[in-house]
Amino acid sequence: MKNGILFLWGVLSAATAFAGEIEPGFVSIFNEKDLSGWDGDPKFWSVKDGAICGQTTPENPTSANTFLIWKGGEVKDFVVRLDYKITGNNPEKWGNSGVQYRSQRVSQEGWAMKGYQADIDTSRFYTGILYEENGRGILSLRGESTVIKKDSSEKTVLPNEEASLEGVSDRLKESIHEADWNSYSIRVETLADSSTRITHTINGQLLTYVVDASGAGARSGLLGLQLHAGQSMKVEFKNIRVKKLKD
Asked: Which domains are assigned to the chain?
């Protein structure tokens, strides 16, 4: 595990910051030209207008969730930031996606993943929540502060002028742009007691705060981008950069 993480940051140190000026300590992991350094089904993933594009159509559907996986190695304690836009090309305007992290391939064949996910959807109902793909499901909703223990979870509402989770979630939803670009920031770090602290922030608003002390979550793993099975949709990603927090 340690060797994989050292390999990752060796790759990052040698990378070029393709997207122009980025924040100190961050390195770009997408060159805005092609899918070099990424692995996914070419039937669904491409680069268009400087952005990674995952798309399904009636003529080209996916029967299962499929992922574009970063080939730079495993991540452990880090911040990943990117911009995304999601479009539902169907009558219901439905679309679902997400950013995988500390994740694993389900098998050596294909592009299925399991692990932590920062959720994204067109309706902004799930956007910002913490989900575990092919695992425990929803771990923390938008507007929640959650401590996950081995046999239980303690949930409170993030500080906000609204008193209820529904009120906080609805207020936070207003900060998410519909059918337009949004900036996502995901911070993951190991605490002194070996639990994992996770925050999801969109457009500068903290959407969920989690401490996973259950021991069930992976301590390190891969980064990936999801294209969800279902109706025709398109999701785009750009300005993808990562910062190492500690060894």
From this structure: 2-244 (2.60.120.560)
- Distances in whole angstroms, Cα of residue 122 to Cα of each of 87, 177, 181: 6, 10, 12
Q: How far apart are CA 58 and CA 233, in angstroms?
A: 10
Neighbouring C-beta atoms of residue 229, cutoff 10 Å: 14
Cβ 224 vs Cβ 237: under 8 Å: no
Q: CA nearest 234: which of 40, 52, 111, 49? A: 52
Say how many CA atoms lie within 13 Å of 145 toward its Cβ: 7
| pTM reported for the whole predicted model | 0.91
Tokens of 239: 């300005």
Q: How far apart are CA 154 and CA 44, in angstroms?
A: 39
Q: What is the pLDDT of residues 4-30, one digit of tens each?
A: 443 344 434 433 334 457 899 999 999
Length of the chain as a residue count: 247
